[in-house]
Specification:
There is one protein chain. The chain is an all-alpha fold. The chain has one domain: dinb family like domain (Four Helix Bundle (Hemerythrin (Met), subunit A), Up-down Bundle), CATH 1.20.120. The chain contains 5 helices and no strands. Helix 1 packs antiparallel against helix 4, helix 3 packs parallel to helix 4 and helix 3 runs antiparallel to helix 5. The chain is globular and about 45 Å long. The chain starts with a helix and ends in a 16-residue tail after the last helix.
């Protein structure tokens, strides 16, 4: 099971790399331009939020350190390199999570109390699934924001790019 989940995460990283490459082509002012109807208001903040979600659920929550979690702070000077660096940290944390729970995918991670209405005792598999689907939800918002700002993304909804 561990190998399958690692492969799945590698595919997600490949898709994320395509998004990073696209974002590097977007002018910095558009990465930071606020579009209130989408995501976290801007492309760069939305993508940083995705990294934050991995950090919270698979790092802080899964290791019972909710009170130690600090959100990624994105200021007006943050660029794609900044978000890439945060995701490098996320990648290390995901590997730590996968190794920690390698044989316990259905074992509840019991917290003292629920967090903002989320389950009090989710399983590692639920947390892993949640973070991945959450990333793709926001990826859709990011490419919609880019289109709205006049930066149409390349087509990347095909499997071909994952197997090269």
């Amino acid at each position: 099971m561990l190998e399958i989940l690692q492969q799945q995460y590698d595919w997600i990283r490949a898709v994320r790399e395509n998004l990073f490459a696209f974002m590097e082509e977007i002018p910095p002012e558009k990465l930071h331009q606020t579009i209130p109807e989408f995501g976290r208001g801007s492309i760069i903040r939305t993508h940083a939020h995705v990294g934050d979600s991995y950090r919270f659920w698979l790092g802080s929550f899964a290791f019972r350190k909710i009170n130690e979690h600090k959100d990624i702070f994105v200021d007006e000077h943050a660029d794609v390199r900044f978000v890439r660096d945060r995701f490098a940290e996320v990648d290390e944390m995901v590997l730590r999570f996968l190794n920690e729970y390698r044989d316990r995918w259905s074992e509840p991670i019991v917290q003292d109390e629920s967090w903002q209405g989320y389950p009090k005792a989710p399983t590692p598999m639920l947390l892993f699934t949640h973070t991945m689907t959450h990333e793709f939800h926001h990826k859709g918002q990011i490419v919609s924001m880019a289109r709205h700002l006049g930066c149409p993304p390349p087509a990347d909804d095909r499997l071909g790019g994952l197997f090269t």
